[in-house]
Design brief:
The chain is an alpha/beta fold. The chain has 2 domains: about 5-15 and about 105-230, HAD superfamily/HAD-like (Rossmann fold, 3-Layer(aba) Sandwich); about 15-100, Up-down Bundle (Four Helix Bundle (Hemerythrin (Met), subunit A)), CATH 1.20.120. It is about 45% helix and about 10% strand. The protein contains 8 helices and 6 strands. Strands 3-2-1-4-5-6 form a 6-stranded parallel β-sheet, with helices on one face. The radius of gyration is 20 Å and the shape is elongated. The structure holds magnesium ion (MG). Magnesium ion binds near residues 11 and 182.
């Protein structure tokens, strides 16, 4: 019997590559049009500096929005802007980045599926990314939304899963299923906690699945899987 479903977001409810392919250059070019910094600091430099910044701040490395803003702020000071202006432009660029980040095309089956599932299960979302599900229409279906990176415990850390279950009626892991695409960040940690797992293997990775891990190729296959599990019990 399953009472709770928790979901990953990126590459589970939408394809994330095209989103990031617009977001990454999009906000940087926007900033360049305002202040002309990109000839001195090309996009690759910003990306490299983000990795280095994250290494210097291991505890908060999973808070991608913060890492971006602070990297940009430091870089703009080096570019020669006064401290307060650097902070202001960094914040504005990040606002622009977040706009683009939420310009998402959810797989077409997802909205209706979530409406149905939310009548049968309690739904939670656990993401390492910086999408704020409350900004999307489908966010309404969820009881609990956890941005695990900003929570300083990105998946595969078990704490986001435990927190979600605790906040949904202290549901035992055995009565919950996690749905996600990453073997390392979704499947293994949820399985080790004793949750059931629906693994969206969109990349065709072919891990062998022990009992309790169900391989799907697309989120649209989830309702049929849940019916099968329900009938088996
Ligand atoms: Mg994912």
């Amino acid at each position: 019997m399953i009472d709770v479903l928790t979901f990953d977001l990126d590459d589970t409810f939408w394809e994330n590559y095209p989103v990031m392919a617009r977001t990454e250059p999009g906000h940087y070019e926007w900033l360049d049009r305002q202040i002309g910094h990109a000839a001195t600091f090309p996009l690759e430099e910003y990306q490299q500096r983000r990795l280095e910044f994250a290494k210097r701040h291991p505890v908060r490395r999973g808070d991608f929005t913060w890492v971006r803003r602070e990297t940009l702020r430091e870089m703009l000071i080096e570019f020669g802007l006064p401290t307060d202006e650097a902070a202001r432009w960094a914040s504005e660029a990040i606002e622009h980045m977040l706009e683009l980040r939420h310009d998402i095309i959810v797989f077409e089956e997802v909205p209706a599926m979530l409406v149905t599932l939310s009548g049968q299960y309690r739904l939670g979302a656990i993401t390492n990314g910086n999408v704020d599900l409350r900004r999307l229409d489908i966010g309404k279906a969820f009881d609990v939304i956890i941005n695990a990176g900003e929570f300083l415990a990105p998946k595969p850390d078990a704490r986001a899963f435990l927190s979600a279950l605790a906040r949904m009626g202290h549901t035992p892991p055995s009565r919950a299923m996690h749905v996600g695409d990453s073997w390392q960040e979704d499947v293994l940690p949820a399985y080790r906690l004793g949750m059931k797992v629906a693994w969206i293997d969109a990349k065709n990775e072919h891990h062998s699945c022990p009992e309790g891990i169900y391989r799907l190729t697309h989120i649209r296959e989830l309702p049929a899987l849940l019916e099968r599990i329900d009938h088996a019990n």
